[in-house]
Amino acid sequence: MPGAIYAEGLVKTFGDVRALDGVDLDVPEGTVLGLLGPNGAGKTTAVRVLTTLIKPNSGRAVVAGIDVLKNPTEVRRHIGLSGQFAAVDEYLTGRENLRMVGQLYQMSARDAKVRAGQLLERFNLGEAADRTAKTYSGGMRRRLDLAAALVVSPPVMFMDEPTTGLDPRNRQQLWEVIQELVAGGTTLLLTTQYLEEADHLAHDIAVVDHGRVIARGTSDRLKARTGGERVEVVVHEARDISVADGILRSFGKGGSKIEEHTRKVTVPVSGGAKLLAEVIRELDARGIEIDDIGLRRPTLDDVFISLTGHAAEVEEERANGAGKPGGKPDGTQEGEREGVREGEPEGERERRRPVVGGPTRQDEEAAT
Amino acid sequence: MSVIGNTALRTAAPRARGGVVQSARDSLVVAKRNLIRMARIPEVVIFGLIQPIMFVVLFSYVFGGSIAVGGSTDPSTYRQFLMAGIFAQTVTFATAGASAGIADDMHKGLIDRFRSLPMARGAVLTGRTLADLVQTALTLVVLAIVAVIVGWRIHEGILKALAGFALLLLLGYAFSWIGALIGLSVRTPEAATSGGLIWLFPLTFISNAFVPSDNMPTALRYIAEWNPFSATVQAARQLFGNLPVGYPVPSAWPMQHPVWASLIWSVVIIVAFRTLSVRKYRSATA
């Protein structure tokens, strides 16, 4: 039985651009799918097809058990949509916005009023409820937009880059809301270009690039595909590199990699923290002074780079400049800068700079 | 209690009633939104008022002594003749606002919200045109007061005068659907502002609104007599009792039966342009 969100062979073209090039998705009820990809990958187009905003050229989609193409109106009763740009009327107050949306969801005027009040309190907009949305901060507008998407507690939610452009505190709050929603049984499709966001929130991840799903699975499985743990050592003196390399290879289970200019040696290992301690003892015994050592696990950044052959930033430039992907840049090791070190506190991870940051407007469907 | 995570609340929206009732209700909800916006951006309404008042004053006093209607160049005769024309021009110029407003809406995220809701398809556009109708009615009230101040009078009783205003409003409503289609067809709100306006100049000037059509070259006279705009002007003049004594009524059918012609034209325009606009709205951004 297909899941709460199901898509098969979705194709959508805008002129010569194949925004969706045969996308298949299957999201079981009550789970979160993270649609991960750079700007222009087709994430927004996929959401727009699934939320009945645009019709695909071909393919089939079923949301909440209803065929999206055959019965879009019925689908709309079962979904909530929160986009990357707050879809609220800025000349209306927060309360007026929510009441309007409630009534357009066919609630009675009375129910819409009650529900608006509840949501405004829940999203900490109670005090600002009767001010026009124009006076709201970016985070407040986004909360109002999300509240509007939740007016009827829809069983299936779509959130298109919900945290793009939000500051860390607002992002954290939004994550909590999402987790609460999912705990309540909502099925959620979430697009993001923040790798850590997909890692944090999604049960399953589908990596999208050039209108195709190029990989899918749990965060752990995707990471496993990229390879296991590695020990990475940065020696203090360049002349120690070859000795360190010898030691690492004796512990490793594969070829080592040396970066002369950063005096860094990396080797794949299995054995975890215990092995790391042995490496340190051995280096110490040989009198090698080290600047840094760590046990590295692949991050979604690594996954992304190994899957697409390019970092998200590179992709963004190409999306603007058009054209087909060039040769696979040997950027695989570059991305490891972003890696997470063993034992690093969770909070550190969350403050880490995302690969593509800032409120960059997604121009992929500008042609529409 | 959890407002958003409560499983018991996890339900689809109430089933849509569908049909005319839902369509009317959704349209009124959207109209309310647009009226609130108008009240919060009063500049738009105020500028919308100043322009026709300027026309009333300029035409009355600048052209008033020079244009002969029914063989008379008496300025007060021209003023009686002119007002229905100015009223009609005002209701049609208000449609430029519909073009700009809809084009503006279509470029905001809010339209995606509307399009993802289980609401009646035409309601976003109908709501907008209804709100514009309210604004037009307000403008007409103010304009009628100014007209009375400069000497305009009705001569056929209040009921006929109200019927005249009703025909004017119906024309304005019909034209706002043309404005809606323009707003949906252009790429930017800026283009909608000018695109919504330029076609109104030939439409309102090649008509009987400001001068009698019988002195125009044959081709223009023919256009003026069949112009939907002229039919409403003629109908309003007749209902206000503003046709000057000795004014020759052209023999063209719409000029002989202006009330019917005005009604038919307006209804045809509404049906045609509403259909086209709603279709365009549905396929927009697809």
From TrEMBL, chain A:
Q: Which residues form a coiled coil?
A: none
Q: Give EC number(s), comma-separated.
A: 7.6.2.2
SMART domains from the UniProt entry: AAA
* GO BP of this protein: daunorubicin transport; doxorubicin transport; response to antibiotic
Question: Which topology term describes how it sits in the membrane?
Answer: Peripheral membrane protein
For region Disordered, the annotated ranges are 314-368
User: SUPFAM superfamilies from the entry?
Assistant: P-loop containing nucleoside triphosphate hydrolases
**What GO cellular component term, any one, is given?**
plasma membrane
Indicate the principal place this protein occupies in or around the cell: membrane
Protein family:
Belongs to the ABC transporter superfamily. Drug exporter-1 (DrugE1) (TC 3.A.1.105) family.
PANTHER family, alphabetized: ABC TRANSPORTER ATP-BINDING PROTEIN, DOXORUBICIN RESISTANCE ATP-BINDING PROTEIN DRRA
Name it: ABC-type xenobiotic transporter
Organism, by scientific name, is Streptomyces netropsis (Streptoverticillium netropsis)
UniProtKB/TrEMBL annotation, chain B:
Do the record's keywords include Transmembrane helix?
yes
- GO biological process annotations for this chain's record? response to antibiotic
- Residues covered by the ABC transmembrane type-2 domain: 43-284
Keywords assigned: Antibiotic resistance, Cell membrane, Membrane, Transmembrane, Transmembrane helix, Transport
| Residue ranges crossing the lipid bilayer per the database entry | 44-69, 81-103, 137-155, 161-184, 191-211, 259-276
Q: Mind telling me which GO cellular component terms the entry cites? A: ATP-binding cassette (ABC) transporter complex
Q: Where in the cell is it found?
A: Cell membrane; Membrane
Q: Where is the signal peptide?
A: none
GO MF terms listed in the record are: ABC-type transporter activity
Q: Name one Pfam family in it.
A: ABC2_membrane
Q: Which domain of life is it from?
A: Bacteria
Write down the InterPro entries for this protein, in alphabetical order. ABC2_TM, ABC2_TM_bact-type, ABC_2_transport, Nod_factor_ABC_transporter
Q: How does it sit in the membrane?
A: Multi-pass membrane protein
Primary localization: membrane
* Homology family: Belongs to the ABC-2 integral membrane protein family.
Q: PANTHER family, per this entry?
A: NODULATION PROTEIN J
Q: What is this protein called?
A: Transport permease protein
The species this protein belongs to is Streptomyces netropsis (Streptoverticillium netropsis)
